[in-house]
Amino acid sequence: xxxxxxxxxYIHLDExxxxxxxxxxxxxxxxxxxxxxxxxxxxxLAIDLGLRAAELRGLKESMFRLNAEEVQIPGHVQKxxxxxxxxxxxxxxxxxxxxxxxxxxxxKSYFNSEWHRERGSDYVFPSRQSDQMTTExxxxxxxxxxxxxxxxxxxxxxxxxxxxxxxxxALRHSLSNYMLGDPDTRLVDLRNRxxxxxxxxxxxxxxxxxxx
Length: 212
Hints:
The protein is mainly alpha-helical.
């Protein structure tokens, strides 16, 4: 019996702006501009860089070279390769290569915000209680924004999905879906963006996207 394919959730890029708008809705949760920008940054970096929640949590402002429009992510921040003795090395990633999100401008505004400076932390995503948000908090924020924006979430098996099913990993899948739909994007480009150990991993994980 063949192994059942994993079902991925994802959104189309036209759903990203409503999510970003939801982060600034005063009725949602926060009345702090800085925290609203932080939540918007969470959405943008998750889908722009294709990072997992634990990797997003480990990001530091000092890793970003905004004038060069890039971020250097050390190996210890990245997820270890499963069943491998080798660990990921440091990787430099271009910010917003498809010019969809205005990532650099958003980060400059966020890093210069009074709220972020008052935190006194180098981490990109601090909370009120700690230098770093928990991955659970990140998942909750993405879910809250998706529900508030009534986001259309898709499933790779074609079944319907609820907005509450959106999470940081689904934003990673959303980037993959977009890149595989771009005729100028090679599979190796997706592999490099997602930082898979090998291209065979990319082929296996996203076989269902390629078949569409």
